[in-house]
Amino acid sequence: MSKILNIEPLGFPWKTQDPFLFCAYHRDEYPTGNSKMGVDFELLRGRNVGQDFTLKDGWRMYHGTNIPGFPYHPHRGFETITINKEGVVDHSDSLGAAGRFMAGDVQWMTAGRGIQHSEMFPLINEKDGNPLEIFQIWLNLPKASKLVEPHFKMLWREDIPVVSLQDESGKSTTVQIIAGSIDNVDALDTTPDSWAANPANAVGIYTVKMEAGASWVLPKTLPEANRSIFFYKGGEVEIDSRKVGSRHLIELVPDENIEISNGSEESYFLILEGKPINEPVVQHGPFVMNTHEEIQETMREYGRTQFGGWPWTETEVVHPKDKGRFALHSDGKEEIK
């Protein structure tokens, strides 16, 4: 019996399985920044500024008008996990929390009962380009946790476990462990109300880099879990005697060890796995609940309260260019890296 359940090309966003709701991969070759950490006006001609999802000249503005990114917007009923591989992300939210994180860092945010936040990509380099590479993953919350208090946590690159595994020929596979466990190395703690906080749910989030010619065995997980490999960059790999090119999704049986043999180029993967929540999912834009009635109530509540309002003077909040990596939490505690 094949260990591969499905192979299909990667679309946008990437197709996910319960308990995951959404996964988007962003790679943008942003140009040199101006003095305001934005894009010079002449480069914006021909773009649908404020709603720019079209890849042009290697980059997009998304919803930004002066600076690329996503100005303030609400969420309820799930979590966002933002994995930064290259570039700068500035966070601000309706609780008064803020932060800046860079290559190798991960932000884990439980939206819970409701939060507004902005995610901007300031172009801090005025001499060279400002490439950005991030994943944004939406992890569902079960009904019992959909209205918990919002919370965000930084997983800093210095603290996130990374394992380098060598095969018999000495070729290396490097795994960043954002959630789960590999080779008896456990991830950092997640936010407290996350589906991933309970080890019994076997949530695994891994970014993987395989050296050309390397082989690696992805260890089995719970038989009831879902497991997806997103092969987003590289040449060709072999899994269970089948050759798969890059830009493909591979869905696998969960309770078997999976040997991956890389071809002649470096290859890069995102792996998502976990026990499904198995509850109804009703989504309306940035709100994810269990019933249509709960969505209607969410929309009414957001109309009344704006989930606490927006305490910042700008909708596209960016931090000072020389600020560096930091996290300011709603209780006033500040982490500086």
From TrEMBL:
Domain Pirin N-terminal: 54-139
Pirin C-terminal domain boundaries: 207-308
Pfam family, one: Pirin
Family assignment from sequence similarity: Belongs to the pirin family.
The name this protein goes by in its record: Pirin family protein
Species this protein is from: Fulvivirga marina
